[in-house]
Each structure stands twice: as structure tokens, then as C-alpha cells.
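ESCALATION

Customer reports they have been waiting on this structure for their group meeting. Please prioritize. Original submission:
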Amino acid sequence: MAVGDALARFGDEALAVLQRVHQAREEALASCRVTIRSCGLSIRAVHRLQPEVARQRAAEAEEALRRAQQALAPHPPLAAAGFLHDAEKEYAEARLTAALVAAEPVPGPGELQVGLPAWLNGLAEAASELRRSLLDRLRGGDLVTAEQLLSAMEEVYDLLVTVEFPDAITGGLRRTADSLRAVLERSRSDLTTTVLQARLQRALQVSAVSETERSGA
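Update from on-call: job pushed to the front of the queue and completed.
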């Protein structure tokens, strides 16, 4: 076979392979974008106390994520490019946020069918999302639930700080955990201030009642 003919055949084969890879990448990117958008809407519904809407959006996100995973399965280098990890992380965050806010058992990476680094980072970001729910409960005077949410945040952080591996293995978990620590400290301060104010208010009310009773006597 002439050199030119061989090169032409190899070139055609290479173009065909690259075309399949490109098509898989485009399909996966589109599905990942849908996943991330649906996850954001799911988390927003959780904060708005719309659990059914949150479940529907999470289901949409999962469907899109599975399409992305399927498209990239034959192409491991593409799967490791980063955008699939981001979509898996967002999906984990949405599902974990819903579970933590509802005080339900959290689904693991196997149940969610996402990579462990994506799950860990999603867990960290879900714990940070609890701050919004915590502040909503404080504004509503529900200190018991606010304390439960803070406790959940603390438990997540206590777990994450035990994961001492390079960022290349954990997907940058150290930075995400550091962000959670800052959110946790602010939330603890907000809750403590609110609790102290509530105690002071009750003490003043008790004092006022006692004074009224003494005056009446």
C-alpha cells in the first residue's frame, strides 16, 4: 500500500474517532448544564419549603446527569476533564441539602451514583446552604430547628476535616471545607446572639410581671 493511501486511511479513522469524541463531549456538556440549572432550582425550592418542587427538579437533574455519564463512559479522558465532576457535585449538593434540611438520612455516593470527590464537595456546599435555612428559622423564632441545623453543619465539618488528602484526589475539598468553616462560624455567632436575646427578653418579661404583681399587692 502506498504511503499516501495509508495516511489517508489513518486520517479517515482518526477523524471518525475524533468526531465521536466531539459529539460525546457536546452531548455531555449540554446535559451537565441542564443538571446544574435543575439543581439550583431544586435547592431554591428547598429553601422555599416546596419539597415536591425540589424533588421534581432533582429528578430532572438526575436524568440529565445520567445522560452525561452515559455519553462520557466510553471516553475516560473526557469524563475526567472536570465538567462532569462539577455536575455530579451540584447534584449531590441538591440531594444532600434536601436531606439535611428535612433531617433525613443523607444518601451516599453509591446511592447518588457520583464520584466520591464530587460527593464530598457537594456535602460541604450543602452544609453551607443550611445557613440560609438556619437564618430563616431564626427570623421565624424557631430556635429548636435552627440549633438542629447548626448541629448538622458542625457534624459535616467535623467529618470533612478528617479527609486529609491532596486536592488532586479530593477535588479541592480543602478549599470547600475552609469556606464551610467560615459559614459555620458566622452561623454559630448568629444563633448564639439570637438565643441570648431571647433569654434576655424572657427575663425582662418575667421581671415586668413580678413588678406588676408587687405593685398590685
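Sent to customer with the following note: The chain is about 85% helix and 0% strand.
Escalation resolved.
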